[in-house]
Amino acid sequence: MPRNSSATKARLLDAAFTEFAAYGIAGARVDRIAEAAGANKRLIYVYFGNKEQLFDEVLHRATTEGAESVPFDVEDLPGYAGAIFDHLVARPDLMRLRLWRLLERPSATGLEPDTFRRKVAEVADAQQRGDLAPEIQPNDLLTMVLAMAQAWFWAAEDVDPGQVSQSWSPERLALHRSAVVEAARRISQKTADAQGS
C-alpha cells in the first residue's frame, strides 16, 4: 500500500506543534515527535530538514491557519482585534510557540512579509479614504492593533502565556476582550476634528 505522504506530513506537523509549544526548539525531541505522529523519525529530516526548519514550518503553518481563521478586515479593526483575541483564547499553545520563537529563533517570522505589507497597504488606503485615523503611520497602526490583541496573554503575571486564558473566568475574559476591542477602536477611529473636516 503506498504511503500517504501528505497525511504523514500533517501528523508530523501536528505533533511538532505540540512538542515545540511545550519544550521549545532546544528541549524538543524528534523521537517524541515521530512517536506521537506514528511515523519514522527519518521522515522528519526527509520532509523538513533539521529541527529548526521543522520549527519554521510549524510556525508558518500556525500563522497561516490563524490568518485563515481570522480574516483581515480593514473596515473593522476593532472587530479584527477581538477576533484575534478569541483565536488565541481557543488556541493557547500559539502564545507559547510565539514565546519560544522570540527566545530561540527570532529570525523566524511565521508571517510572510508580503502578507503584512498587503495589510499595511489596505490600512494606508483606508486612511487615504478617510475611514481610519491618519495620525499614525499605517504600519504602526496595524502593529499596535495586533499587539493589543495579544497584550493580555503576555502581561498576565506569574502565568505561562500558553495557559493564561485557561486561568481566567468567563467574566474576566469578557472584560479583557472588551478592553482590547475598545483600545483598537480608539486608536483607529478618526478624531472628532478629522471627522468634521
TrEMBL record:
Pfam families assigned: TetR_C_21, TetR_N
The UniProt record lists the keyword Nucleotide-binding: no
Annotated region of DNA binding: 29-48
Residue ranges of every copy of the HTH tetR-type domain listed in the record: 6-66
Record's keyword terms, sorted: DNA-binding
Keyword DNA-binding recorded: yes
PROSITE patterns (alphabetical): HTH_TETR_2
InterPro entries (alphabetical): Homeodomain-like_sf, HTH-type_TetR-like_transc_reg, HTH_TetR, Sco4008_C, Tet_transcr_reg_TetR-rel_C_sf
Protein name (record): TetR family transcriptional regulator
Organism: Microtetraspora malaysiensis
